[in-house]
Design goal:
Largest sheet: 6 strands, mixed
Helix content: 40-55%
Order of helices and strands: HHEHHEHEHEHEHEHHH
Strand content: 5-15%
CATH class: Alpha Beta
Oligomer: single chain
Radius of gyration: 21 Å
CATH superfamily: Thiamin diphosphate (ThDP)-binding fold, Pyr/PP domains
Number of domains: 1
Number of helices: 11
CATH architecture: 3-Layer(aba) Sandwich
């Protein structure tokens, strides 16, 4: 920092005092961090209020799709068919789409990321931090509650993306201001089904053992929902529209 270099050469008291606080003159990258239980569920009202304020605030959601810190209870981020506390018979409702909800405001930077694509993660963080307005980055976060081997967790991240369960995208309102579609879809075409992905995690397999008929029914619903949601994002990204944002 040039200012500190100059001040370090000065001997007067005012320069010394300014040197002691010079670091505070640099703009900091400040982020609000929380899990899906907070962001999708018990704290959603507060999160929505902050994002809707239009203030320059950055939010990172670490989405494990379950209340990890309090014992593994189902949250609104828990996927259809997954087993968790309070959803012992398999979650009967689809996962809440926090990204889609946030995009409807039009002036919020929104990204959905995964370590399956590190370059996309870095790009999203840099864009969110540079955006002069509210931003939210939703990150797929593997968890022991998924019933996986944690030493191969990145492979599960890749399967979540490859199945379409975790579509990668970036919604940048600055593009809308240029008359362009702000939604940039970063996922490639799906290569496996949701069931192929889910079969590697105990949170889905356990229901198949306990109630095969219900497990098959929910898995069929989950396959169809995942496919239709993935197609919706892809079509929205291909539209010649600025989403009406200003």
């Amino acid at each position: 920092m040039k200012l500190k270099g100059v001040l370090e050469k000065c001997t007067d008291d005012d320069s010394k005092n300014l040197l002691s606080v010079a670091d505070y003159l640099v703009k900091k990258s400040v982020w609000i961090m929380g899990g899906d239980g907070w962001a999708y569920d018990i704290g959603y009202g507060g999160l929505d209020h902050v994002l809707a304020s239009g203030e320059n605030v950055n939010v990172l959601v670490l989405d494990t799709e379950v209340y990890s810190n309090t014992g593994g209870q189902a949250s609104k981020a828990t996927p259809l068919g997954a087993v968790a506390q309070f959803a012992a018979g398999g979650k009967r409702m689809p996962k809440k789409d926090l990204g889609m909800i946030s995009m409807t405001y039009g002036n919020i930077y929104v990204a959905k990321v995964s370590l399956a694509n590190p370059n996309q993660v870095v790009k999203a963080f840099l864009e969110a931090d540079a955006y002069d307005g509210p931003s939210i980055v939703i990150a797929y976060t593997h968890c022991i509650a998924h019933g996986i081997k944690m030493d191969s967790a990145i492979e599960n991240c890749k399967k979540a993306v490859a199945s379409g369960h975790w579509p990668l995208f970036r919604f940048d309102p600055r593009l809308a201001a240029e008359g362009k579609n702000p939604l940039q879809f970063d996922s490639k075409d799906t290569t496996i089904s949701f069931e192929d992905y889910a079969s590697g995690e105990n949170r889905y397999r356990v229901l198949k053992k306990a109630n095969p008929e219900m497990a098959a029914k929910l898995m069929d619903q989950a396959n169809k929902y995942t496919s239709s949601r993935f197609d919706l994002y892809r079509k929205l990204a291909e539209m010649n529209t600025d989403w009406g944002a200003k």
